[in-house]
Design brief:
The structure holds 2 protein chains of 2 kinds. Chain A is of the alpha+beta class. Chain A is built from 28 helices and 22 strands. Chain A has 4 domains: 199 residues, no CATH class; 180 residues, no CATH class; 217 residues, no CATH class; 169 residues, no CATH class. Chain A is elongated and about 100 Å long. Classes of the chains: A alpha+beta, B alpha/beta. The complex binds adenosine-5'-triphosphate (ATP) and magnesium ion (MG). The site of adenosine-5'-triphosphate has 11 residues of chain B, from strand 2 and helix 1.
Chain lengths: 850, 243
């Protein structure tokens, strides 16, 4: 074994506690980075494979760019393309089944044209029969009652629903619950847990109230034809509004999962960077501690490179060890998380997730960051070590050089802070995001210069509780101002991020709640049970609306209808409203100088209202023209107003009148019904009769608006729970940093502590000294972090306001209180192990300690 | 042949009003196999002299030849190699790496020089046995007495078969019995194994083991006396007023 490796391993073994603490920091960071990254790809993969399974048997799939539905005639266009053997129209919509009735939450209702479908791909039958032209003909004149349309199920679906030929399947539809008769089971591949039900196209269209519309065209390519050529020809034939090929790229779910993985990576990187702080600190101490060893090694002939290599090897060993453990723990974490999430995931998206999936990039990221950051953080101390001359090593280190460096750094830090402040008040989100990072860096540079004044100030408070030990603790910190500063910086960054996020979340939360109170004037609310307006929702035809209107005690009623459109590559939902009726039961939050007068213009001559977030993202303003891809082709609208409703405040949304929605999107089904109670009416009685009306429409949930508001608050509180967990995750590295610094402080002062004990300090006094030191350090980091965090949070909220999320700023009192409590608790907790070490020192051994 | 040939060595610390002349035009030569003690009051420049000769420090003026090679023009890498191969060091403190065993500590100069670990360890155990620590091969420094630690340091200074051993108060930390043992060992190193030794000491009894004593005061050599045995040593010390 080479000499560097031997020395590295021996030194690491010689200081087990410190090695463990430093390695733990790396383990934690890698665990997050690796483990969390295993979860999302698993979800993405199951989503992808379900899509591949759904379309994989098919040569060519044509879908709308806006992910919406389109006219069935497109199928004929595709069939006419050179090289296409056959094309078949399909309507595929996920439908939520009645809870408790089936062990499956959602099923894909697929409408097919039996004749052309079988020429595109095979539908082998295992029992009964596949759909026939007779089914099609019968369903074409079916109006929702009189007979039960035929349905065929893949074997896996039949099994999970417990149905066989001759049984009845109940599916929510625009008519209420529709009964379907199972006529056959099919040997076709679906992703495990992805259930499908095939009915004739007219039956599906009637059940979903889509008119003669479909969601995709599947086609088979003639044998011997070149696939890319045919695909290109098909694309040309159908035009820009359609996608040919796969469907996965267009999924908005993909986009949000990708965003999720980005956020998760940020957490992991944050934790690893914090680990870098810890490593840096440890190695600085290690170098200081080993000055004499280094000097002696240099004297007997070790070159600078050998010394440099020794420290790098040491960091490499720790980096590799920490990364390896982190990967193992991370694997466990993601397996556990996935099994915990899988029930939610299969209920919500109706997909099953298996084992965590680790992409090559995840491996590279985790290993690269874990080992890389460790070695990088050791680089500066290692270089310093290599530069120690044998003579210097025999003398005590001089202090004034360090002072100069501190002062210079503080000025650089101050300059950086000034620049960051300029960026933070810019109100531009990406500039604000970048500036917050820069701001924290600047603050970290200033911190060393603050150690003395701030600890002096806090020292007075600490002296109250620690009369004898306070002064000593303070002196210890000030003596190693650099080490104290790095620790305080690590803590500061954690606390600042936590408080800034808490501040932002509080504002978002309170903002939305007050928004609900303002905007939702309606007394009753009928909304899709899965809360997603535009996907997976079966609308209701006007029978439901009529019944709601006819209900005793119900006054004004307004509805929302949803279509999808695309603007360039971004897709958005287009909501159809009746401006007059809407104003009676709810209201919009207007911006850009818009008002109710502008809203009233909707409904004539292609006028449209866009919501704040969509306007901000695309730089749109009142009076401008907006070109959208709709199912009826490219349409140009005039923006009459900018305003948002509560339900859709977070999504890119535009509003048109319901007549325009019907004209351009072909949508007539209601997905949200809002109603007022007549004044003086018995609300409870109305609610009860509405409830019985809705029994036939299990895809909808009925809420008393007050009750619904409470539900929203509850949802937010659940988000809060998840957020507190994340904040805890962010805080852990700072605890480790604190623990590490105290532990190395105690180690470095072993001889001194032995001397204190020898001249008569009690164990208790030694322990209290360590705790006092820890508390000082923790308060330094916490207070700086609180100041930085409040301000960062404010800038974030301010920036969000400018991108269309209108929200007031709420001062994070709770966040500050929590940070203070956690900071001080960490201060005490972190001191426990090192304090124990210090008090248990054997005096004789300590005095001989090198 | 002279192993060490120092000519007009001066070392000035600091500059201007703050300048301290630690060494003032000192000339000194040490022959192969010669055991030279350096004595003088605290702060007279003994350590400074040793550091300059060992290539740990650079002189303000003057020159040092080791084995006939001028070290003035050498860069850090060359100086390091010279120390590794031609010079052995024994200090008063911090001689050993605390996490390595005796054998490993002794083997260190060879390992640093690129020798294979088992070869280096064999040579190291050999030297440890020769100086009477054959039963302490695997012990770490904290499991050895102060005297034993210094003997390990001497073994390490010898293991690379250097021409010169520089020892700065090697017994400064030890009781009189251990000191005597180290002095006897150094005597053996020069007498039997033919190494030149330059040793700084405050202890007349230790200095008496040397072949020659160089007396210093205020950065200058004030006397240079050949001695043989305690009597002549005492006489030399009395002459310069050290006793
Ligand atoms: N780095 C330095 N900067 C300034 N002055 C120094 C430095 N090193 C040594 N000196 C001064 O040089 C003079 C000689 O120091 P040196 O260490 O050589 O003395 P010494 O003879 O070894 O003393 P002792 O017997 O106490 O070890 C002393 O006056 C000392 O103060
Ligand atoms: Mg000295």
């Amino acid at each position: 074994m080479n000499v560097q490796l031997t020395l590295a391993i021996r030194y690491l073994k010689g200081r087990k506690l410190r090695t463990a603490l430093t390695t733990l920091a790396i383990v934690f960071g890698v665990m997050l980075l690796f483990g969390l990254n295993g979860i999302l790809p698993a979800m993405l993969q199951s989503l992808q494979s379900s899509m591949v399974a759904a379309t994989g048997q098919t040569d060519l799939v044509v879908t709308s760019k806006s992910t919406g539905q389109f006219d069935a005639s497109v199928a004929a266009t595709v069939a006419g393309v050179d090289g296409v053997a056959a094309a078949t129209p399909m309507l595929r919509v996920p439908v939520a089944l009645q809870p408790k009735k089936y062990p499956v939450g959602t099923i894909s209702l697929i409408g097919v044209d039996p004749d052309s479908a079988v020429s595109v791909r095979p539908y082998p039958v295992t029992s009964g029969r596949f759909l026939t032209a007779d089914d099609l003909a019968a369903d074409r004149v079916w109006t929702g009652s009189g007979r039960n349309p035929s349905v065929t199920l893949p074997d896996s679906t039949a099994k999970s629903l417990g149905l066989g030929v001759g049984d009845t399947l109940e599916i929510p539809s625009a008519f209420g619950v529709t009964k379907l008769e199972v006529v056959g089971t099919l040997d076709i591949l679906t992703v495990p847990g992805n259930d499908e039900a095939y009915v004739s196209l007219p039956a599906a269209q009637a059940m979903l109230d889509t008119g003669n519309r479909i969601s995709e065209v599947d086609a088979a390519i003639k044998a011997g034809s070149d696939r890319p050529t045919v695909t290109a020809a098909a694309q040309k034939a159908v035009g820009d509004a359609y996608l040919t090929g796969g469907v996965e790229a267009n999924s908005s779910l993909f986009a949000s999962l990708k965003l999720g993985s980005f956020i998760i990576n940020m957490f992991g990187v944050f934790a690893i960077v914090m680990a870098g702080f810890i490593i840096l600190n440890t190695f600085r101490t290690v170098v200081a501690e080993r000055r004499h060893d280094i000097g002696m090694l240099r004297a007997i002939g070790a070159s600078q490179r050998t010394i440099f290599g020794m420290f790098l090897t040491e960091s490499l060993v720790q980096g590799v060890l920490g990364t390896a453990i982190g990967i193992v723990v991370g694997y466990g974490l993601s397996s556990a998380a996935l099994s915990g999430l899988s029930s939610i995931y299969s209920d919500l998206l109706h997909l099953s997730v298996g084992k965590p999936v680790f992409l090559p990039s995840t491996w590279i990221l985790a290993i690269g960051m874990g080992v890389g950051v460790t070695v990088l953080s050791a680089l500066i101390p290692a270089r310093a070590a290599a530069r120690i001359t044998p003579l210097e090593a025999m003398r005590p280190q001089m202090g004034d050089v360090y002072e100069k460096v501190v002062t210079r750094r503080a000025w650089i830090g101050a300059a950086i802070i000034a620049a960051a402040v300029a960026g933070l008040v810019s109100r531009n989100t990406s500039v604000v995001g970048f500036s917050s990072v820069v701001f924290l860096v600047g603050l970290a540079l200033v911190t060393p210069a603050l150690v003395k004044p701030v600890t002096d100030a806090f020292g007075r408070a600490i002296d109250l509780a620690f009369r004898q030990e306070g002064a000593l603790a303070r002196a210890n910190l000030q003596r190693n101002a650099g080490r104290a500063a790095v620790t305080a910086s690590a803590m500061m960054v954690s606390v600042a991020v936590v408080i800034a996020l808490l501040g932002t979340f509080t504002s978002v939360f309170d903002g939305f709640i007050s928004y609900i109170d303002k905007a939702m004037g309606a007394d009753f609310l009928v909304i899709p049970s899965n809360m997603l307006l535009s996907t997976g929702t079966v609308g209701a035809n006007d029978a439901l609306l009529r019944e709601v209107k006819a209900t005793e005690g119900v006054g004004d009623v307004a509805t929302l209808r949803v279509g999808r459109a695309a603007m360039g590559t971004t897709s958005l939902q287009v909501i159809g409203i009746d401006p007059v009726a809407y104003q009676k039961v709810a209201s919009f939050e207007f911006s850009d100088g818009s008002s109710q007068v502008d809203l009233a213009k909707l409904g004539t001559d292609s006028t449209i209202m866009v919501n704040g977030i969509f306007a901000a993202q695309n730089g749109l303003a009142k009076g401008e023209k907006l070109k959208l891809e709709t199912p009826a082709g490219t349409k140009t609208y005039t923006i009459a107003a900018v305003g948002s409703d509560y339900l859709n405040a977070k999504l890119a949304t535009a509003y048109v009148s319901q007549s325009e929605l019907e004209r351009d999107f072909g949508v007539t089904a209601d997905v949200v019904i809002m109603a007022n109670a007549k004044s003086g009416a018995d609300k409870a009685a109305s609610l009860a009769s509405l409830k019985s009306t809705l029994k036939d429409f299990p895809q909808f949930a009925l809420y008393d608006t007050k009750e619904w508001r409470d539900l929203q608050v509850k949802t937010f509180q659940q988000v809060y729970g998840a957020m507190y967990f994340m904040l805890f995750v962010l805080a852990v590295p700072s605890l480790l940093a604190l623990l590490n610094t105290l532990a190395i402080g105690v180690l470095a002062r072993t001889r001194e502590i032995g001397m204190l004990r020898a001249i008569g300090s009690t164990r208790k006094q030694v322990r209290r000294m360590v705790i006092a030191e820890s508390l000082l350090l923790a308060s330094l980091g916490t207070v700086l972090g609180m100041l930085a965090g409040v301000w960062l949070g404010y800038s974030m909220v301010d920036a969000m306001n400018t991108v269309g999320f209108k929200m007031p700023y709420y001062f994070p009192y709770n966040g500050l209180a929590i940070a203070l409590v956690i900071g001080m608790t960490f201060g005490v907790v972190a001191a426990l192990i090192p304090a124990r070490q210090a008090t248990k020192l054997d005096i004789v051994a300590a005095l001989h300690y090198e | 042949m002279a192993i060490v040939e120092a000519k007009n060595l001066s070392r000035v610390y600091g500059s201007g009003d703050m300048a301290v002349t630690a060494l003032d035009a000192v000339s000194l030569s040490v022959e192969a196999g010669e055991f030279v003690a350096v004595m003088g009051p605290s702060g007279c420049g003994k350590s400074t002299l040793l550091n300059l000769i060992g290539g740990l420090d650079t002189p303000s003026s003057g020159s040092v030849m080791i084995d006939g090679r001028d070290i003035a023009g050498m860069n850090d890498t060359e100086l390091t190699a010279l120390r590794r191969q031609r010079i052995g060091f024994v200090f008063q403190f911090f001689n050993l790496i605390p996490v390595l065993s005796s054998v490993e500590n002794v083997a260190l100069p060879l390992v640093l020089d690129g020798k294979k670990a088992d070869e280096a360890n064999a040579a190291a155990s050999d030297w440890l046995k020769r100086i009477g620590l054959g039963d302490r091969l695997k012990n770490r420094p904290d499991q050895l007495s102060g005297g034993q630690q210094q003997r390990v340091a001497v073994a390490r200074a010898l293991v690379s078969e250097p021409a010169l051993i520089l020892a700065d108060e090697p017994t400064g930390n030890l009781d009189s019995r251990s000191s005597d043992e180290i002095a006897a060992l150094l005597k053996q190193v020069s007498g039997e194994w033919g190494r030149a030794i330059l040793m700084v000491t405050h202890d007349p009894r230790i200095a008496a083991h040397a072949d020659r004593i160089v007396f210093m005061r205020d950065g200058r050599v004030v006397d240079d006396a050949k001695i043989s045995g305690a009597e002549s040593a005492r006489a030399a010390m009395e002459k310069v007023g050290l006793l």
